[in-house]
Amino acid sequence: MIQIVIADDHPLLREGLRRILEFEKGIEVVAEVGDGQGAINIARKMKFDILLMDLNMPGVNGLEAGRVIRREYPNIGILVLTVDDSDEKILQVLQIGVAGYLLKDVDSKTLVQSIRKVFSGEPILSPAVTGKLMEQLSNPTPLRDNCGLSDREMEILHYVVQGSSNREIGTSLFISEKTVKNHLSSIYRKLSVDDRTQAALKAVKLKFFVLD
Q1: What is the pLDDT of residues 173-199, one digit of tens each?
Q2: Contact (Cβ atoms closer than 8 angstroms) between residue 20 and residue 40
Q3: Which strands make up the sheet holding 2-7, listed edge to edge?
Q4: Structural element, H or E, at residue 62
Q5: E strands, the chain, in order
Q6: Are 27 and 19 in contact (CB under 8 A)?
Q7: Residue 195 CB-density burial (10 A; 0-12 exposed, 13-18 middle, 19+ buried)
Q8: Would you say 118 and 77 are in contact if contact means Cβ atoms under 8 Å apart?
Q9: Count of CA atoms in the C-beta half-sphere (13 A) of 142
Q10: Quick one: CATH architecture of 137-206?
């Protein structure tokens, strides 16, 4: 059972999300809160799997709450659901290592699929957010210093930035998912990051790629 906490300051939206999710097999909404401090408090009181959270909330906002929860409870998957698609906010949120970033115009089917993917360990980015990352990579000059990454690791990192899953990367490169995971572990170590989201963000900041 995937246990979910909803954090949003709009009661009607929380109710709508609960109604969507309560009909899904294997998904249970265990709590609702209206601000970031409430999300932090509930994380400290009970165990759950996924925090479905807005960013723009009164008091402690979603970004601040996300930082605290990621630090104290790294096993909780944070799936951001927001209207804010600004470049700055996207990069700030990805930097703290959230599991996914969706915009509120997402359809219910995609939302449910995203929750299940986050629960299984796959990162989720909406097409609009992925597009923002691609824009960051559109014009930079590649750096000679690639942090010691091999050609294969750079290839895999490129797929990670594009939002590909381990399975998709393996299929594209004709290697096993296990091999992909081994390469990712090496990439994380060389980039001094903890997960694929932070790796993608660092690749953007270091301007590793030029996209056609």
Answers
A1: 999 999 999 999 999 999 999 998 889
A2: no
A3: 27-33, 2-7, 50-53, 77-82, 100-103, 124-125
A4: helix 62-72
A5: 2-7, 27-33, 50-53, 77-82, 100-103, 124-125
A6: no
A7: middle
A8: yes
A9: 9
A10: Orthogonal Bundle (1.10)
Distance CA(52)–CA(39), nearest Å, equals 10
pLDDT digit string (tens) for 18-66? 999 998 999 999 999 999 999 999 999 999 999 999 998 988 999 999 9
Considering only CA atoms, which of 182, 165, 62 is closest in space to residue 123?
165
Contact 72, 43 (CB under 8 A): yes
CATH classification number, 2-127, choose in 3.40.50.850, 3.40.50.720, 3.40.50.2300, 3.40.350.10: 3.40.50.2300
Nearby residues of 175 by Cβ (< 8 Å), 6 or more positions away: 169
The Cβ-side half-sphere exposure at 31, using a 13 Å CA radius, reads 20
Cα R_g (the chain), whole angstroms? 17
For residues 95 and 66, is the Cβ–Cβ distance under 8 A?
no
Q: 137-206: same fold as 2-127?
A: no
In this structure, the chain runs to a length of 212
Whole-structure pTM value: 0.65
